[in-house]
TrEMBL record:
Organism: Floricoccus tropicus
Quaternary structure and interacting proteins, as annotated: Homotetramer.
Amino-acid positions noted as binding substrate in the UniProt annotation, renumbered to this chain: S65, N115, E159, N166, Y190, Y242, V260
Protein origin, superkingdom: Bacteria
Family: Belongs to the glutaminase family.
Protein name, entry field: Glutaminase
Coiled coil: none
Length: 306
C-alpha cells in the first residue's frame, strides 16, 4: 500500500530496477553469500523526519562499511580533530576498500573510508575493554537509528574466521604506531561494528540525522556536533565510494557510503537521506542495483549537488 506521491515514485523505481540482476553476492565473508539476492528496499527520509519507503525496507542486513563514517565521527568526538588527523588523513585514495594504502612518509591511512583508516577509527574509540568499545559503538549507531541495534553473530564469526587481510592491516598499523593497543582486540571490535544489523529504514534515519546536522529528527536527540558532521560528509563525498568515488560524484552527486552487505546511504546536507538495499555487488563492493537506482533517483529528483 502506498499513500504518497514519493512512495508511489519509490514503487516505480522498485519495479523498474528489480529486473536488474547485475553483480554478485559478497563471498569473501562466507556468511554474506547466504543472503537472498532478490531483496530490494528503498527509503527516503527528510531532515525533518518524514520517512517514505517501498520494498523490503524492514529486512535486516549487516551495515558493513556504512559503519565507517559513524565510527569516524565517534573517534573525533572522543579525541578531537587534531589527534584524529594525526592518525588518519582526509585524502581521496582512489583505491579499493581493502587496499593497504598508507602515506609513504607519515604512514597514515589516506582516509577513514578505506579499511586501514576505518580500523584506525575503531582503535580510537575510548573504552577500558574491547567489549566496552563495541558497546559504545553499538549504542552510538542505535542513537542514530533511534532504535536499539544488535549484532549478527553468524556474520561476525564468519568475518572473524576469514578476515586475515584486515588482521594484517591492523598489525601493519600497529607496526607504524598508528593504532594503539592490541591489534587483535581492535580487529574484533571492527568486525563487530561491521556485523551490526540495520534495516534500510534504519540507514535512512541515520542519514537523515547527518542531513539534520547531527540531531536525530525522530528522537530529537543531539548526537554529534555539526562540525564533525561536516567532516564526515566531506570524507564521504571524496572517498565514500572508494575507487568508484569519481564516477559516483559525476553521475549521482551526493555524499554517500556503501557496504558489502548491500546497503548504500546517500546524504544531501540540510535536506534528506536516501538508503537503498540490494545485496548483489559491483566490482567496487557496492550494490549494483543500488548504484543504478541512485543514478536514476538523483537525476529524476534533481538531487546532484552541482
Ligand atoms: O572490512 C571488510 O572487509 C568488511 N567488514 C566491510 C567492507 C565493506 O563493506 C566494503 N564496502 N563496500
Amino acid at each position: 500500500m502506498t499513500n504518497s506521491p514519493i512512495e508511489k515514485y519509490l514503487e516505480d523505481i522498485y519495479k523498474r530496477f528489480i529486473k536488474n540482476n547485475d553483480g554478485q553476492l559478497a563471498d569473501y565473508i562466507p556468511e554474506l553469500a547466504t543472503v537472498d539476492p532478490d531483496r530490494f528496499g528503498l527509503v527516503l527520509a527528510t531532515a525533518d523526519g518524514q520517512v517514505y519507503k517501498y520494498g523490503d525496507t524492514s529486512d535486516e542486513f549487516t551495515i558493513q562499511s556504512i559503519s565507517k563514517p559513524f565510527t569516524y565521527g565517534l573517534a573525533i568526538s572522543d579525541n578531537g580533530f587534531d589527534y584524529v588527523d594525526r592518525k588518519i588523513d582526509v585524502e581521496a585514495s582512489g583505491d579499493a576498500y581493502n587496499e593497504i594504502s598508507l602515506d609513504a612518509d607519515t604512514h597514515r591511512p589516506k582516509n577513514a573510508m578505506i579499511n586501514a583508516g576505518a580500523i584506525t577509527s575503531t582503535s580510537l574509540i575510548r573504552a577500558a575493554s574491547s567489549e566496552e568499545r563495541y558497546e559504545r559503538i553499538r549504542d552510538f549507531f542505535s542513537k542514530f537509528a533511534a532504535r536499539d541495534l544488535s549484532l549478527d553473530q553468524a556474520v561476525y564469526n564468519s568475518e572473524l574466521e576469514t578476515g586475515h587481510r584486515n588482521r594484517a592491516i591492523a598489525w601493519m598499523l600497529k607496526n607504524f604506531d598508528i593504532i594503539e593497543g592490541n591489534p587483535e582486540e581492535v580487529i574484533r571490535s571492527y568486525f563487530e561494528q561491521c556485523s551490526t544489523l540495520v534495516s534500510t529504514e534504519d540507514l535512512a534515519i541515520m542519514g537523515a540525522t547527518l542531513a539534520n546536522n547531527g540531531v536525530n529528527p525522530i528522537s530529537g536527540e543531539e548526537i554529534l556536533d555539526s562540525s564533525i558532521v561536516e567532516r564526515i560528509l566531506s570524507v564521504m563525498m571524496t572517498a565514500g565510494m572508494y575507487d568508484g568515488a569519481g564516477d559516483w560524484m559525476t553521475s549521482v552527486g551526493i555524499p554517500a557510503k556503501s557496504g558489502v552487505g548491500g546497503g548504500i546511504l546517500g546524504v544531501l546536507p540540510g535536506q534528506l537521506a536516501i538508503a537503498v538495499f540490494s545485496p548483489l555487488l559491483d566490482r567496487h563492493g557496492s550494490s549494483a542495483r543500488g548504484v543504478a537506482a541512485f543514478e536514476t533517483i538523483s537525476s529524476d529528483l534533481n538531487l546532484h549537488i552541482m
